[in-house]
């Protein structure tokens, strides 16, 4: 029997609820929190409060869109981590009380695993085993995906995540939050070879993105001393060059991982997989290295509950349920 599941995602600054029924996603409602814009980044306490305000309307809208009643649900899922503790707590507490009221089981979901399993929402779906470059605001990982619920992190960032590098670079250039998508947009009309930024090579399959911020800071300082209008005059070229350095850093390790594992099924996931340059590079590398590449639809790149409900579906089938003692884990890891 295919279960009917409601899932809630509240790990960062998006409150989302999705409904899965008869093997399909029937609703995926996302409320993005505008409150953080004026602070230039996510303020954890404000995120928790906004989740509290959004959660009931978002869940109601998801049930309405899916055209189902609460009594049809077989389970309620929530993101347990990783993420912001207070934000996760809202989704976790809501899911537990909702499930308790309906006397149905709860399912806890790892947010990073969910980003990867977003690839099973729509065709084409990757074949196991595949490699997934998981790139978000908090993570940068190369994951060996052996099965739906069996994953191994081959390498990861030793400091900042690549999404953070995009956002911090954008901030240094005076772009509004969230900077990643804005930097991407400007990069599309720029020359990626106009300036060069360091592509840091870490051991094994690991990454480092903290140095690029300093190099951009020095680059801006030096050039604006000579010409105060330097940024305004060259913004698309600067953005395109930064984006190219970040993408090259990612692709270098992805190529290495593909080579060493012999795997040619290669996916990307997470917020940064919405980046136009990364998506294009994946297509180019598919031809160059004879990879089968998998790039998520835009709506499933950034945070959403559809990916959480998809993961919950696989956990339901595997009989992996949580209990009322479940609590958020801001540093939850993908199981080895
Ligand atoms: O997965 P996600 O929505 O949230 C986390 O789990 O962190 O990822 C958010 C990150 C942010 O750093 C955001 O700037 C970045 O994804 N992002 C992008 C683009 N769209 C979102 N970065 C570069 N280019 C984009 N088009
Ligand atoms: Zn995410």
Automatic annotation (TrEMBL):
Cellular localization per UniProt: Cytoplasm
Binding site residues for Fe cation: 111, 115, 303
Keywords: Acyltransferase, Cytoplasm, Iron, Metal-binding, Transferase, tRNA processing
UniProt record, GO biological process: tRNA threonylcarbamoyladenosine modification
Cellular-component GO terms for this entry: cytoplasm
Record-listed E.C. numbers: 2.3.1.234
EC primary class: transferase
Catalytic activity annotation: L-threonylcarbamoyladenylate + adenosine(37) in tRNA = N(6)-L-threonylcarbamoyladenosine(37) in tRNA + AMP + H(+)
Pfam families: TsaD (PF00814)
Coiled-coil regions listed: none
Cofactor binding mode and count: Binds 1 Fe(2+) ion per subunit.
Taxonomic superkingdom: Bacteria
Residues that, per the record, bind substrate: 134-138, 167, 180, 184, 275
Main location: cytoplasm
MF annotations from Gene Ontology: iron ion binding; tRNA N(6)-L-threonylcarbamoyladenine synthase activity
Gcp-like domain ranges (all copies): 24-308
Presence of the UniProt keyword ATP-binding in the record: no
Cofactor(s) the protein needs: Fe(2+)
InterPro entries listed in its UniProt record: ATPase_NBD, Gcp-like_dom, KAE1/TsaD, Peptidase_M22_CS, TsaD
HAMAP family named in the record: TsaD
Purpose: Required for the formation of a threonylcarbamoyl group on adenosine at position 37 (t(6)A37) in tRNAs that read codons beginning with adenine. Is involved in the transfer of the threonylcarbamoyl moiety of threonylcarbamoyl-AMP (TC-AMP) to the N6 group of A37, together with TsaE and TsaB. TsaD likely plays a direct catalytic role in this reaction.
Stated family: Belongs to the KAE1 / TsaD family.
Official protein name in the record: tRNA N6-adenosine threonylcarbamoyltransferase
Gene from which this protein is expressed: tsaD
């Amino acid at each position: 029997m295919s279960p009917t599941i409601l899932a809630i995602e509240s790990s960062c600054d998006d409150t989302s609820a999705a409904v899965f029924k008869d093997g399909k996603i029937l609703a995926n409602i996302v409320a993005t929190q505008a409150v953080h814009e004026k602070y230039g980044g996510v303020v954890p306490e404000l995120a928790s409060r906004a989740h509290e305000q959004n959660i009931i309307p978002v869940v109601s809208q998801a049930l309405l869109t899916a055209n189902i009643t609460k009594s049809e649900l077989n389970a309620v899922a929530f993101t347990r981590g990783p993420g912001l503790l207070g934000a996760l707590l809202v989704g976790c507490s809501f899911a537990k009380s909702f499930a308790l009221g309906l006397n149905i089981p709860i399912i806890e979901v790892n947010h990073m695993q969910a980003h990867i399993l977003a690839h099973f929402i729509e065709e084409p779906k990757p074949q196991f085993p595949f490699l997934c470059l998981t790139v978000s605001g908090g993570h940068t990982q190369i994951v060996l995906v052996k099965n739906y619920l069996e994953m191994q992190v081959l390498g990861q960032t030793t400091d900042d995540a690549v999404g953070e590098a995009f956002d911090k670079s954008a901030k240094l250039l005076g772009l509004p939050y969230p900077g990643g998508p804005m930097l991407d947009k400007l990069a599309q009309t720029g020359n990626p070879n106009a300036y060069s930024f360091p592509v840091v090579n870490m051991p094994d399959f690991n990454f480092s993105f903290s140095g690029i911020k300093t190099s951009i800071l020095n680059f801006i300082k030096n050039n604006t001393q000579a010409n105060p209008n330097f940024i305004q005059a060259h913004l698309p070229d600067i953005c395109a060059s930064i984006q190219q350095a970040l993408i090259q850093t990612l692709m270098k390790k992805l190529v290495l991982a593909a080579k060493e594992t012999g795997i040619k099924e290669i996916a990307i996931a997470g917020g940064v997989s919405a980046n136009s340059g990364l998506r294009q590079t994946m297509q180019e590398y598919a031809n160059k290295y004879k990879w089968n590449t998998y790039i998520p639809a835009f709506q499933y790149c950034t945070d959403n509950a559809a990916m959480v409900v998809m993961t919950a579906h696989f956990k339901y089938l595997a009989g992996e349920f949580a209990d009322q003692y479940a609590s958020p884990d801001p540093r939850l890891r993908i199981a080895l």
